[in-house]
Specification:
This protein has 14 helices and nine strands. 53% of the residues lie in helices and 14% in strands. It starts with 7 loop residues before the first strand and ends with a helix.
């Protein structure tokens, strides 16, 4: 699909990620129909961006060449994609369904099969970059599916991404997102431990981060969350509840494929302690609270 050609597109799910992602499609000139479980949010989006609101995923998908969705979990994906009033019920043969939800590879393969039975292309395409990445159109999109389907959808996804990459067949996007979350979990805990150690040692933690971020310890987490961790601020970014959902998916998949995830399992339990302290909606960098408040 040409980047410059206006398309009939649907977007299902207008949460902190989906709302701005759909907005980028509208700004690019595509004709966008939206669906959200909370109809008021969909109406708010229409007031901001134009387009139209639909009462069900099937209604939103009817007439759309591409249908994007970004919902909560595996059960939501099944319902919104393949339920009685799901997107596939309204999609025509030859159209494409793209799922940006972070979900399991199992559900990705299920929906791929259900879509194929209807002659609809399907891509599992979870994203990384958080709310800021969605708002700024700088997400990283990890895609699983057929190469021909990917080629037809890539330019449209690029409107809210800095990188859109096909990793392999159905489920490969979700598996790659699991790798992403496994790596982040370990990095955030290591950063929390390093900052807490610096504070206990009487060092100026901000100056320490400034120095070591110029060397081998540098990471996105350090650059974007280090100073806010020092300042004990956790009211933005990716919530602990969401990370625990994602790490649960990683650990389930590891049980299936035999991978060892000892650090991931420990960090998941540490996040459960943050939840127990009332931090379910704190940013994931709040792990440092466990080290400060022992």
């Amino acid at each position: 699909m040409s980047e410059t050609t206006a398309r009939d597109v649907a977007f299902l799910g207008l949460g902190v990620m989906g709302y701005p992602m759909a907005g980028h499609l509208a700004h690019a000139g595509h004709r966008v129909t939206v669906y959200n479980r909370n109809a008021d949010k969909a109406q708010q989006w229409v007031a901001a961006y134009g387009g139209r609101r639909a009462a069900s995923p099937a209604e939103a998908a009817a007439g759309a060449e591409l249908v994007m969705m970004c919902v909560g979990n595996d059960d939501d994906v099944r319902a919104v994609a393949a339920g009685a009033q799901g997107a596939l019920a309204g999609m025509a043969k030859g159209t494409i369904l793209v799922d940006h939800t972070t979900a399991s590879a199992v559900v990705a393969r299920e929906v791929h099969a259900a879509a194929a039975a209807r002659g609809v292309g399907f891509l599992d395409a979870p994203v990384s970059g958080g709310q800021a990445g969605a708002e700024n159109g700088k997400l990283t999109v990890m895609v699983g599916g057929d190469a021909a389907t990917f080629a037809r959808a890539e330019a449209v996804m690029a409107h809210y991404a800095r990188a859109v990459t096909l990793l392999g067949g159905p489920g490969s996007g979700q598996l790659t997102k699991m790798v992403n979350q496994i790596c982040i979990a370990g990095l955030v805990e290591a950063l929390a431990e390093g900052i807490a150690f610096a504070e206990r040692a009487g060092l100026d933690a901000e100056r320490v981060l400034d120095v070591i971020s110029k060397g081998a310890a540098q990471s996105w987490q350090m650059e974007n969350r280090g100073k806010t961790m020092v300042a004990d601020k956790f009211d933005f970014g990716f919530a602990v509840d969401w990370m625990r959902k994602d790490l649960g998916i990683c650990l389930d998949e590891a049980r299936r494929n035999g991978a060892a995830l000892p650090v991931t399992a420990v960090v998941d339990q540490l996040y459960s302690r943050v939840q127990a302290r009332g931090g379910a909606r704190w940013d994931t960098s709040s792990l440092i609270r466990l080290l400060r408040d022992r």
